Amino acid sequence: LAFLVYKRTGSALGSTGFFLLSQVVPGFVAPLLIPRLERMAPKRVLVGLYLLEGVLFAALAWLTSRFALAPVLVLVLIDGIVALTARSLADAVRADILKPRGLLHEGNALTNTVFSVCFLVGPLIGGAVVAFGGTVAALLANCGLFGVIGVALAFTALPARAEHEAPSPKGRLRAGIAHVRSDPLLRNLLSLQGVGV
User: Fold this and answer.
1) Whole-angstrom Cα distance, residue 30 to residue 84?
2) How many angstroms separate the CA atoms of 90 and 82, rounded?
3) What is the H or E stretch that residue 182 is in?
């Protein structure tokens, strides 16, 4: 998408807007949305979010032949918010599944390993799809993959959200900051990651 935006606009500002709206702005918006969605049934929310991502990628594929920067950037922003929200909620569900079984450490290790492999292999596959099939093919492949994820989750048993009084988003943020401050190793790790990003 970044290449498509640059190719169609010839503007580094257009590509900058793409990265800001796909990566940066969702980081500020999704945390406001997540606490509201956490109160709902995780299965319904995750299926809805992943199917919505499929629809967004289908719309982006459709827009490639009718390119207009503003609608593309709006869809990219919505997708960034949906993607970050879905990832966070999926992580919470994974923890809800693994923690009672005493497998949280092992599950996180496996998830991080798979994510790292996919983070390296995914762009290679994506680049090959774009090189041989074009941007539309890559966007439609994403559309299909999110559809498969949504349908698979619809037929998967997920735990119900635990019924407990959740603190407010501000309270959770304060508790998270206090926890990071109390753990020097975690504080240093997150500080280095923040500087690196």
Assistant:
1) 6
2) 12
3) helix 169-182
Give this prediction's pTM: 0.81
Least Cα distance to 126 among 107, 142, 145, 108 occurs for 142
Cβ neighbours around 42 below 10 Å, total: 19
Q: Compute CA 11 distance to the chain's CA centroid, rounded to the nearest angstrom.
A: 26
Residues 131 and 120: their CA atoms lie apart, in Å, by: 17
- Interatomic CA distance for residues 140 and 62, integer angstroms: 9
User: Taking every pair of C-alpha atoms in the chain, what is the biggest distance, in angstroms?
Assistant: 53
How far, in Å, CA of 71 to CA of 59, rounded? 10
Interval 44-64: pLDDT, tens: 999 999 999 999 999 999 998
Q: Which helix (H) or strand (E) holds 144?
A: helix 135-154
pLDDT tens for 67-116 read 888 898 999 999 999 999 999 999 989 988 999 899 999 998 999 999 89
**DSSP run (H or E) holding 161:** none
